[in-house]
Every structure is written in C-alpha cells, then in structure tokens.
Amino acid sequence: MGVEGIGARVVRKEDKRFITGKGRYVDDIKLLGMTHAHFIRSPHAHAKVKGIDSSAALKMPGVVAVLTGQQLVDDKVGNLICGWAITSKDGSPMKMGAWPAMAPETVRFVGQAVAVVIADSKNLARDAAEAVVVDYEELPAVADVHAAIKAGAPQLHPEAPGNQVYDWVIGDEGATDAAFAKAANVVKLDVTNNRLAPNAMEPRAAIADYDAAEEHFTLYTTSQNPHVARLVLSAFYNIAPEHKLRVIAPDVGGGFGSKIFIYPEEMVALWASKKVGRPVKWTGDRTEAFLTDAHGRDHVTHAEMAFDANNKITGFKVKTYANFGAYMSLFSSSVPTYLYATLLSGQYNIPAIHAEVIGVYTNTTPVDAYRGAGRPEASYLIERLMETAARQLKVDPAALRRANFITQFPHQTPVIMAYDTGDFNASLDAAMKAIDYAGFAARKAQAKSQGKLRGIGVSCYIEACGIAPSKAVGSLGAGVGLWESAEVRVNPVGTIEILTGSHSHGQGHETTFCQLVADRLGVPISQVSIVHGDTDKVQFGMGTYGSRSAAVGLTAILKAMEKVESKAKKIAAHALEASEADIVIENGEFKVTGTDKAIAFPMVALAAYTAHNLPDGMEPGLKESAFYDPTNFTFPAGTYICELEVDPGTGKTSFVNFVAADDFGRLINPMIVEGQVHGGLVQGIGQALLEHAIYDVNGQPVTASFMDYAMPRADDVPSFNLSHTTTLCPGNPLGIKGCGEAGAIGASAAVINAITDAIGKNNLEMPATPDRVWRTINAA
Amino acid sequence: MYQTTYHRASSVDEAASLFGKSSEAKFLSGGQTLLPVMKQRLASPSDVIDLGKIKELIGVEAAGDTLTIKAATPHYDVATSDVAKKAIPAVAYLASLIGDPAVRYRGTIGGSLANNDPAADYPAATLALGATIKTNKRSIAADDYFKGLFSTALEDGEIITAVSFPIPAKAGYAKFPHPASRFALTGVFVAQTKSGDVRVAVTGASQSGVMRVGAIEAALKANWSPLAIDSVNIPASGLLSDIHGSSDYRANLIKVMAQRAVAAAG
C-alpha cells in the first residue's frame, strides 16, 4: 500500500489550514460593495401575514432595500421544490402545499421568513429589521404528529387535507398477515424517534454576486452539493439559467445532511443581489440554525414481529407516522420511505414485511435527511424490537440475533434491497469478544454490590449507502441521477489535479482521494491536489451525502485514473520502444517489465504535452474524465455493544465501555474512518441520551439554543473501542462500502438497549434523560 | 448587540462614579450572562463598566475563621486556589464545576452573586455558609441578600467587593448539572458550622431561587449522615419544572444531592 497509499493512516492534508485558522469559509469572503441581509422571521407557528410596513426601516441609515414575499411572487420566483415523488397506496401522488422562499400570505412555522432587510452592514440591517412592522393574524397551530392527523386539527395546506402528505406502503401485506396468523409468538413495540437539530459547527451562509454586464450570478454557499444547488436554483426558481450561475461551496464546516438542501436564504440572496445591484451576504446565526436548518428524524412507530416456535422471525409489520414539519424539503419525502422502510429487514432473514408510512404536516421546522436519514430510524426500530423479543422470549439477545442472521449472499429482502455481501456473525463475534460479553453477568453483579444498575445493549445495524444506482433511484421516484463524476488532469510537469463532484465538508477528501493516486502511480500525495466545490472548475457532479464519496466519488476518480494510465502507458511504451502490454507502473516510474528500462511519470506527462514524439494518431495532453454509476447500493453493517451503568438515585447514565465492529469494505485511510465512526457514534449517543428538538403545543420551539438543546460534549461520551471485520463490496472495484453514517445509525439502539437492560424496564423513549430514566425506574 | 460604551474602571470608586454619570449603565464582572444577553439584543446598556481589571477586587484570602474571595476573582482562580482548597474545599470544588473552562476563566463570584441566576452555583455556598456579601456601601448577610429570581438586596449602582465565608467544621457540595447549560439542575451545599449549626442551601430547584431546606437541616442536625436524609420528605410544590427536570425529579435530586454532599463533606 505504500506509506501514502490505500490503507495508510495518512495525516489529513487539509488540517494545516483548519488548525491554523486559515480555512476559507463563506463568511470569510468579502466582496467590494457587499451588502448584508437580515431576515425578518415569523414569531408565530401559524399566522396570516396581513401587512408589512417597511416605511420607517427604509429611512434608516445604510438601508438599501426591504424585500418581501409578495415581491418574490411579483418577480415570478419559483417555490421551493421537493425532488422525490412518492405515490400513496391509493395511487395518488403526494400532496404538497407551496413553499415560497419568503411567505407572502401565510407563515407555517416559527422562523419562516416573511421579508429581508438589505443594508450596508449586518448591524444596520438588524437595526432596520426591528423597525419593520409585520401585521400577523394568528391561526391555530399544531406541532405534534398525532394531534395533526386528528379530525378538527388546524390545517396547514389546502392541498393536503388532514395534513396528510402521503400514505405509502411497501411489502406484501397478505404474506405478512399470514405469517402473523401462524406465529408462535408476537412481539410488539411502540417507539418514538426523537426530532433532532443538525447543528453543523458552521451555520449556513450565502453570498450572491450579480454581474449586470454579463447577466451572470455567482453564489458562494454552504453546500454539500454545489452542482445540485445550481441545477435546482436554475431549473425551478426562475432566477438564473444554469450557464449564468456559478455556485461555489468553499470550506464548509460540517453538514450532516442539513447542507444538501436548497434553502430560502440563498434563493433570496441571489434574487436580491440582482434587485439591489450589489453583492448580498447572509450568515445565519445559531438561533437561525435551530429554527431553519432542516431537522432530522421525528417518527412515531408501532411495530410487531412474528416468531415461530424456534424463535425464527416469520413476519414484520410496521406503521410509522413521519413528521415533515410545515413544508416538504428537497429530499424529505424519500427519507421515511425509500431510505427507511427498505432497510426494515435489518441483518435478518425475514420472509414477509409490510410497512405503512404516513407523512404528516405540522407547524414545525421542515424535516429532511440528517446523518443516516431513515436508516437510523429503521435500525433503531429493529434493534429495539430484537432486544424486546429476546426479553419476551427469554433468550440471549445476541443468540436471538445470530439465529436470524442472513448468512447467504446475495440476499433479496422483501423490501427492495438486495444485500450484496456481509458477514454479520463476524462483526457480532468481534464486538462480543471486545466487550467480554461472557463476563458481563459477573460485572453486573459487582456493580450491583456498589449500588449501580449495569446494563449491556447490542445493536446490529445495516445501512444502504452510496445512494445509487441512478436507474434504481429513478424508478423509485428520485428526480436526479445519483452517479458521480471525476476528472484527472495531469499537468505537463507531472503534478496531478483531481476534480471531483464530491464535496468535502469535514470528510478529509483532500487526503483520501490523493491516497488513491499515490497508490496507483507511486507519486507522493504532495504532488496531487483535489479540486472540488466550484461549478466553474469542476464538471457536473452530485455531491456528498449518504456515505457515498468513497464508494461512488472515489470510484469515478479511479475510472478516470485508469484512462489516464492507459494513455500514459502508450506514451511510455512508445518512448521506451516497448510493447504497451509490457509496461508496469512502479514507484512513480513506467517500466518495461523484466528490464531496467523505465521512464519517470513526469517525463511521460511532459511528453504528452510537448507532443513531439507521440504514437501516431494520439491526441496531445493527459487529462481524462469519468462518470461512474454503480450497479447497487453498498451495505455497510456491523455490531455495536454498549455497557453502561445507571445511577438509580438520579437516573444518570455513565458509560463503561462502547465497542464498534464495523464492516465498511476496504478502508482508504483507517484514521479518517475512525474519526467518522467517532463522530457518528457521538451523534447516535446524543440522540439516545441528550438531543431533542421540542415544540410546545402551540408550535413554539422550546429548544432553540444550546442552553436548552443538549449537544453531546466530550465528557458525555466514552472512549470508543473500534475494530473492523471486512468483506469487500463487490459492487465497486475498490470494494468500498462507506463509513460516514454508521455510527449515527447503530449507536442509539445499543444505548437504549443497555439502559433498559440495566433498569429492567423495556419502555423507555429517547432521549433517555436522567429524569426520564429515573421516572421509568420508579414507575409502577 | 446594540452600540454601547465600554469603560474599564481602575478602582471601585471610579466604577461607582462612572455608573452615576451614565443613563443606563451595567457593571461587567466576567460578562458570562450580560454579554450573551446583549448579543441577543435583550439588553441595551448605554455604558458597560468593566470591574474585571480592578486590582483591589481580585484575590482569595483566609484569615482566622474567614475565607474571603474578592468579587472580581474568576472561578478558575478560586477552583485552583490553595488558600480556598485548604480553608473550604467545598467552595473551591464548587467553583471547579461552574460552566466550562471558558466560563471559569471569565466568570466571577461577584458577577454570579449580583446576577443571582436561580441555577447558579455560588448562591448555594453563600447561603449555606452564611457568608457576608461586602459592597462598596455596606455588608449584607446572605440570609438578607437573595430576593428571588435574578433579584438581590443590592441597590442600583452598588458594587460587590468581596464575599466572606465563615470557615465551617464541615461542608460539601453536590451538583447535578443541567444537560445542556451545565448550570445546576439541582445543586445542594451542606455546611456544619463550628458551633454545630447545620445550614443547607439548594440552587437550581426552586421557583424562588436559592433556598434553605429546613427539613434537611433538622435531620442533619440530629444526625450528620446521608442516612438521616432518607426519611425527609421534600414536596415538589414550588419547584421548577422544565424539559430537563420535572418538579418531582428535582425534589428527588434535592434529597439525593444533599446525601452526596454530606458524604463528600465527611
């Protein structure tokens, strides 16, 4: 593998600039004549906008404009779109209300923008915003999913009667009912998957710059997928055509899904920059992040699992209500359907599954993909249910899982997914060994003697990643293809630029992607640079989400590399007067195999560009591109086991040990993979113990700051014990499965299973706050 | 933040004089509450008078039976003070639990007591130890100082200069932190004075701010032991209830934290 090749723990190239404060984020960019936007947001969860009086604000110093939702309508700016069509069980398309970037008539969640002040400075914009008088007529609001579907509930959109977006089903209901009819045991569980606020470290931001002479827009924005942003902004919003819009996502400080979507603020900034004839900058603050970044999760589910007399699962029935908030965000519709219900088979051989998902509008912040997106909800449900089943059936939880594991691959589940490979026993074995599962009973007894309740919890997760192939997602309703592209540019001196459609916002692509090149050509990674995040520099690409950048994005680079190598071999063979078939690449040299004849890679590159002596008919230059569309999703899987203690006096949970045995296929940089797992686990633990975006009955957010919303901190989480059990993914040539979301998908169930084991009560919702755990311990 | 005028006072007299000359002045003593509130535009003082660099307001001293912490001493200095750790270890320990390192380097005891957040830590020690709050005008007994949520006996423009804690026979503090803010969801400070009296103060739990708990004091006076608190009944009425702790949970925490504080006190 070499010291910098695939599998090497290479220190991250990008960290020098991040650690020394030299990262370049959107808010760091200052343009000549730049103005600043401050949005005026609804304090009400549901209200009519009766009027907006900006006359006083317009007279204030430094104020350039006050723009409203009605002006967006007047200028025929399009409404925000949802890019994945879902069909209800009755055959009707999903029912959606319009989402204007600023509300001209009705606001439907606290924080929805109704107007924007553009001024010479951020403070002047904020001052003037206080002078804008918005006349609201409050309407009844509903925040809870159950309340929203009741007869007589406040209605959000006339297009969606009963606040229902869709009622979607998957699986074979008849076969599932038949399995339950014959079941020896049925295990039932109700679970809530708590709503989360994503809280990327860098808040969202946008700078729009309109060039009137060229009729051209440049948008700097915090995006995980700048090309998709350009596509959506140009195709649907009537602001700028694609060739007149450049989208740049420079350094971006975390996304976790929340920066996939096109938000009102960047649309308004673009439109406003043309209206005022100056660049417009908006940088959200933390409150705006809590109020307007798409939230995650928020499911309420009833599930039942049927077992035969040998404790084999025979059927699985699920009914889920998914809270979408007030509007359908870009990919929201797919999250509780094709990213959730298609994973309901978990790691288990389940002959019959039927799931129904009802999408519901409420007067809350829109909900969309957040790290894991549907798969954490599925994994949490299955793994809570397996633990519940083990307790009810009085068998060891690990043994019950093992007895039901899928062991033959490929495996077609009853819910679309065809798992390509895996070894679920291997990861379970590794995790059980790492945590000394056999010795737990003795440790529990020891803890009891010290007044502590000790528990152990297993979670065997599987996810579908890569979010591809395009043909498959297209058949399921996706509005876009989900391939990835790459271009490899070899410079005349032999340095290499990789242009990738993937986007790095913390993942370390500038290191891992170079490692592939180092591995193949034997050149140092210092000779390679990664270019991403600028639609003027990089060919169209799909961006980063769904743990796809290595499995799909890096494979696209590999495909382009193969073309470069093929041409370079021809040039080398010509120069060395050898047969192309005899050329091998070793340590940065092209060699004639079995001889000492060689030509260094930079000389090959130079030859390509001088073109003085190329094979007949060959074009000069050394630059190739590739578009890669995989043949299947990838299926990372693994086992997490958590051991913890509960203080019965306070209900406080303390970790004793947390082991993770993951199968991510081939690892490019194990150090970066470990970082991804650490971060994911912390988010999963955060969901299990701390995080909850709460609204009161009137739709007012209760947790809109870090004083109330409990983000996990270093001392809330244990030191993790990680290992890998590898089966190579057969779906891509590098054998990669993806590692970005696993921790967030698998951790929550391990934690809750461990707490419920410790306290001897099965019904416990997330977040398992000390109050909630204490109350559960003391419940009758 | 709205525009404001910042002053760095070099003496208490100068600070008081500046205050008198301003229309809507606020003293800044660490700013761990005032500055976030100003950033959110929820406060708009015309002038901010910084007490943090006044030399006479910084330091930890023990003399005779008294530990004195000057008002602008940051929590970190108290937490790491050998003088404080020797005189009343529970006070140094309490200071080590406030907020996070950034807060402890900035926040001060005077700022904490003047603000009197119902979930702040220092009020528990101040009340339980029967401390004296010294100002530029007078001395105020702790029992007379705390007047409910964010309310104190301080007059407009009055500056805390120091807090004097009588050194007790035994003292302990146990805090259950709020999961998000790390303020006290419930914190209990127990003290046994050298004359054998017992005082117990609870922060974070009551709707009226820091409070003494007579039932626990009586039980501990009879028997200074965690077990003595087992049979004490703490009613949930009058206690705070929010998403992180219901009132009955806080009632439970008062007992449990009191027991742990006694155990820590030895």
Describe the structure.
The complex is a heterodimer of chains A (780) and B (266). Chain A has 20 helices and 28 strands. Chain A has 780 residues and is α+β, with helices and mostly antiparallel strands. In chain A, the strands form seven sheets. A seven-stranded mixed beta sheet of chain A has the order 3-5-1-12-9-10-11, with helices on both faces. In chain A, strands 7-15-14-13-8 form a five-stranded mixed beta sheet. The mean pLDDT of chain A is 96. Chain B contains eleven helices and twelve strands. Chain B is globular and about 55 Å long. The model of chain B has no long low-confidence stretch (mean pLDDT 97). Chains A and B meet through helix 20 of A and helix 11 of B.
List the topology elements.
The complex is a heterodimer of chains A (780) and B (266).
Chain A: H1 15-19, E1 35-41, E2 47-53, H2 55-58, E3 63-68, H3 69-74, E4 106-107, E5 113-119, H4 122-131, E6 133-138, H5 145-149, E7 164-171, H6 173-181, E8 185-193, E9 205-211, E10 216-221, H7 226-236, E11 245-248, H8 264-276, E12 280-283, H9 286-292, E13 299-307, E14 313-325, E15 353-361, H10 375-393, H11 397-404, E16 411-412, E17 418-419, H12 424-434, H13 440-449, E18 453-462, H14 470-475, E19 484-490, E20 496-500, H15 509-521, E21 528-531, H16 549-576, E22 583-586, E23 589-592, E24 598-600, H17 601-610, E25 623-628, E26 637-647, E27 652-663, H18 670-689, E28 721-724, H19 742-759, H20 770-778
Parallel strand pairs in A: 1-12, 10-11, 14-15, 20-21, 27-28
Antiparallel strand pairs in A: 1-5, 2-4, 2-6, 3-5, 7-15, 8-13, 9-10, 9-12, 13-14, 16-17, 18-26, 19-20, 19-25, 22-23, 23-24, 26-27
Chain B: E1 5-8, H1 12-21, E2 25-28, H2 34-39, E3 47-50, E4 60-63, E5 66-70, H3 75-79, H4 82-87, H5 89-96, H6 101-106, H7 109-115, H8 122-128, E6 132-135, E7 139-141, H9 142-145, E8 160-166, E9 170-177, E10 184-192, E11 198-203, E12 211-212, H10 214-222, H11 247-265
Parallel strand pairs in B: 1-3, 2-3
Antiparallel strand pairs in B: 4-5, 5-8, 6-7, 6-8, 9-10, 10-11, 11-12
